[in-house]
Amino acid sequence: MRLLRSTDLALRVLMRLAVISEASPTTRQVAESMDVPYTHAAKVVAELQHMGLLLARRGRGGGLALTEAGRTASVGVVVRAFEGDGEVVECEGETPCPLRAGCRLRGALRRAQEAFYASLDPVTIADMVAAPTGPLLLDISRAPAPS
Ligand code: SF4
């Protein structure tokens, strides 16, 4: 199963904020440090803010900060929210599959998808930044942006 880029980015943003103790980074700084377009990062940040997982303060001294709900957020919940209801295979697309009315494979794939999400439910953002990931993430975040 392959995750959307926005799902992976959402998890990376939460993990990055989970290890930063100094001044809150801006969305632009986060986008630059992750080498992703600002508009993509801004969209993900807005969704995470809507979910109550981070705070985005505007103006001087503003920036992004993880909420307690963000620190303890389930990776499975974040993945489900960003992936949506899509199935792993498109049965109903522009050319609907003729087997879709009674396909056992479709049900098996749905159960496999759910099992994948369920395996991530007990994993939290805080778990994901334990060593060695957290210290490494901190080093990368402090690295000067390429000029
Ligand atoms: S064979 Fe089954 S799972 Fe595959 S596209 Fe058709 S309905 Fe969907």
UniProtKB/TrEMBL annotation:
A UniProt-annotated Pfam family: Rrf2
Keywords on record: DNA-binding
Molecular-function annotations in GO: DNA binding; DNA-binding transcription factor activity
One Gene Ontology CC term in the entry: cytosol
The organism's place on the tree of life at top rank: Bacteria
Cofactor(s) this protein cannot do without: [2Fe-2S] cluster
NCBIfam families: rrf2_super
Name of the protein this chain belongs to: Transcriptional regulator
Origin organism lineage: Bacteria, Bacillati, Actinomycetota, Actinomycetes, Kitasatosporales
